[in-house]
Amino acid sequence: MGLKYLHTMVRVKDLEASMAFYQQLGLHETKRMDSEGGRFTLVFMAPPGQEDCPVELTYNWDGDEGLPSDSRHFGHLAYRVDNIYETCRQLMEAGITINRPPRDGHMAFVRSPDNISVELLQEGEHLAPAEPWASMPNTGHW
């Protein structure tokens, strides 16, 4: 049996806010589909050069009262970054909460506006512990 990864789908309550969040992570829109009959929009976003590994944002035009729920049953998305500290700094400056800071120089977690947990992993070796990250407490859960 052959298997090929296609995409990960997450439901979103506010398409623009969700797109802005994923853009802060460095993803860009690669494809969009609007369904008049189904009354939904699909927006595929991926890191540059990795368009074959998108996250699909599914937006229901008539709303989705179940969103945003805790969504922990979903698990998480994961992205590798060149510098975990710089990435987290840029996200904080954009108003994004770092739920699990990269105290170990390797891993951090943030959440999308729809409560989707996103893991950020340092490329290569762990960075040396550094402030403010080393002593920063968790915020909420991831």
Global structural class:
alpha/beta
Classified by CATH, the class is Alpha Beta
CATH architecture verdict: Roll
Query: Could you state the CATH homologous superfamily?
Result: 2,3-Dihydroxybiphenyl 1,2-Dioxygenase, domain 1
Q: How large is the radius of gyration?
A: 16 Å
SSE sequence, one letter per element: EHEEEEHEEE
Number of strands: 8
Summarize the structure.
The protein has 142 residues and is of the alpha/beta class.
Tell me what the structure shows.
With 142 residues, the chain is an alpha/beta fold. It has one domain (8-62, 75-134): 2,3-Dihydroxybiphenyl 1,2-Dioxygenase, domain 1 (Roll). Helix content is 14%, strand content 32%. The chain has helices at 15-24, 84-93; strands spanning 8-12, 28-35, 40-46, 55-60, 76-81, 98-100, 107-111, 117-122. The strands form 2 sheets. The protein has a 4-stranded mixed sheet with strand order 1-4-3-2, with helices on one face. Strands 5-8-7-6 form a 4-stranded mixed sheet, with helices on one face. A hairpin with a 5-residue loop joins strand 7 (107-111) and strand 8. The protein starts with 7 loop residues before the first strand and ends in a 20-residue tail after the last strand. The mean pLDDT is 90.
Which features would summarize this protein structure in a list?
single chain; 142 residues; alpha/beta; 2,3-Dihydroxybiphenyl 1,2-Dioxygenase, domain 1; four-stranded mixed beta sheet; 2 helices; globular
